[in-house]
Amino acid sequence: MFISWQQKAVEHTVTKYSHAQQSTLVQTRRQGRHGMNTHVVKIANRECSCGKWNQFGIPCSHAQKVCGAYNISAASMVKDYYDVMAYNNTYSKHFEPVQSEDYWDDPNFQLVHDPTIRTVTRPGRNQTTRIHNEMDWRQTRARQEAQQQQGDYSIQENVS
């Protein structure tokens, strides 16, 4: 992930705004239908408006380009939990195996099945809860265009 973002960073343009906060504007290069996006990177806060740096803890391509502009090592901006010392500290403790269920304490409560809590299902296929994105829109648009072209051909045949 770090390497692929590093390769993408080569094609970004950086505009410095605040040297004290190390706040910059990064513009990506157009690649086909994608690109020409603008992102705000604040190195001091370790954040980028694309959200990848916050989500993964690894500087995104925009942040890596800004690190290069300020002569900062992007590897030093990776979250501490990716550090080898953190990994070793996590697994240096002694783990005890779990005993058989026969030795477990009895819970001081009883689980009761309540059939009224169950949601009522409608007949037919459940509706999806997935949020559609531009990939779905392109497929739908291509399908509509193909259907429209087929309709145009059938109209031309009827006219002839």
Automatic annotation (TrEMBL):
<feature type="compositionally biased region" description="Basic and acidic residues">
    <location>
        <begin position="131"/>
        <end position="144"/>
    </location>
</feature>
<dbReference type="GO" id="GO:0008270">
    <property type="term" value="F:zinc ion binding"/>
</dbReference>
<feature type="compositionally biased region" description="Polar residues">
    <location>
        <begin position="151"/>
        <end position="160"/>
    </location>
</feature>
<feature type="domain" description="SWIM-type">
    <location>
        <begin position="39"/>
        <end position="71"/>
    </location>
</feature>
<keyword id="KW-0863">Zinc-finger</keyword>
<keyword id="KW-0479">Metal-binding</keyword>
<dbReference type="Pfam" id="PF04434">
    <property type="entry name" value="SWIM"/>
</dbReference>
<dbReference type="InterPro" id="IPR007527">
    <property type="entry name" value="Znf_SWIM"/>
</dbReference>
<protein>
    <recommendedName>
        <fullName>SWIM-type domain-containing protein</fullName>
    </recommendedName>
</protein>
<dbReference type="InterPro" id="IPR006564">
    <property type="entry name" value="Znf_PMZ"/>
</dbReference>
<feature type="region of interest" description="Disordered">
    <location>
        <begin position="126"/>
        <end position="160"/>
    </location>
</feature>
<keyword id="KW-0862">Zinc</keyword>
